[in-house]
Design a protein that fits this description.
The protein is built from 13 helices and nine strands. Strand 1 and strand 2 form a beta hairpin. Helix 2 packs antiparallel against helix 4. The mean pLDDT is 96. The strands form two sheets. Strands 5-4-3-6-7-9-8 form a seven-stranded mixed beta sheet, sandwiched between helices. Strands 1-2 form a two-stranded antiparallel sheet. It is elongated, with a radius of gyration of 21 Å. It starts with 6 loop residues before the first helix and ends with a strand. It has two domains: 64 residues; 197 residues, Rossmann fold (3-Layer(aba) Sandwich), CATH 3.40.50.150. By secondary structure, it is an alpha/beta fold. Bound molecules: glutamine. Glutamine binds next to helix 7.
Length: 283
């Protein structure tokens, strides 16, 4: 990168470099990275193609380009991502919220009555809990996580969306959930098996927190722990909604049946894969 480069030339060079390094969306990532350093949106970028870049700008862009080329996730480099059309701060302390998880949120919103209390187990960035609170103004939400670094991010996200008064974040272990029952319990827990973990793309395997992904040999450990505690955390008539991996529908359904839940169902994502399993505690 030399100082005589224009924005368009830099964009093209970065795109080619990313492509060479096997980055999935090289042009898009190049645009988003450069736009963020220059504090432009993507339209602003297109309108400034001929603009020459000064040395200081290049010096700030260069290390980010290098890190992305090494497969560090774009969201960590930008420090944020979008979920449910809301901006969330993210850091390597939290899993990057996925678009697929919006299905879990849709189900939660659909099951929610006028008012109540929701518990989000393994809240991470708080994306599910905070988006739910954003939509349901008469609900109180609680997010639980074992990672205090994650809880700090979640708390910051609640403040950012002016929802801190209805969002509580607490440290806790899935193996020993709080002695308190909720109207609605949701979780996108770790569900990757040991063998599957090895096959994940480097962005995930090398940069996202393993603690947020791994769940034992079959990827079912967290569901087992959750199923064992449904009576404690769910009020009678309350729903438990779980995101699952695409091969886990039957195993998780079984666990919920054995836990005594009723009205058990599975919802697919937009790619047609089973994505959410839900069940209800009988009245
Ligand atoms: N609840 C958060 C999310 O869905 C974090 C999930 C996790 O860390 N397993 O993004």
């Amino acid at each position: 990168m030399s100082e005589s480069w224009t924005l368009l030339k830099l964009l093209r060079w970065t795109t080619g470099f990313f492509r060479e390094k096997g980055i999935d969306n090289p042009r898009l990532d190049a645009e988003l990275l450069i736009a963020s350093v220059l504090e432009l949106d993507r339209v602003g970028l297109y309108l400034n193609y001929d603009r020459p870049l000064v040395a200081d700008e290049l010096a700030r862009i260069r290390p980010l380009v290098k890190r992305r080329a090494q497969h560090e996730p774009l969201q960590y480099l930008l420090g944020k991502t979008e979920f449910w059309s809301l901006d969330f701060k993210v850091s390597p302390a939290v899993l990057i919220p996925r678009a697929d998880t919006e299905i879990l949120l849709e189900e939660a919103l659909e099951k929610a009555t006028e008012s109540g209390e929701l518990l989000d187990i393994g809240t991470g960035s708080g994306a599910i809990a905070i988006s739910f609170a954003h939509e349901k103004e008469h609900w109180q939400v609680a997010g639980l996580d074992i990672s205090t670094a994650a809880l700090e991010i979640a708390q910051g996200n609640a403040l950012r969306h002016a929802l801190a008064s209805r969002c509580t974040f607490m440290a806790g272990d899935l193996a020993c959930l709080p002695e308190r029952a909720y109207d609605l319990v949701v979780s996108n827990p770790p569900y990757i098996s040991t063998s599957e973990y090895e096959t994940l793309m480097p962005e995930v395997r090398e940069y996202e927190p393993a603690q947020a992904l791994l769940a034992g040999e079959e990827g079912l450990d967290c569901y087992r722990l959750l199923a064992a505690q449904v009576e404690k955390v769910l009020k009678p008539g309350g729903w438990l909604l779980l995101e699952i991996g695409f091969r886990q529908q039957h195993a998780v359904t079984d666990l919920l049946v054995k836990a005594g839940l009723t009205e058990i169902y599975c919802r697919q994502d937009y790619a047609g894969n089973p994505r959410v399993v839900g069940g209800r505690r009988a009245f």
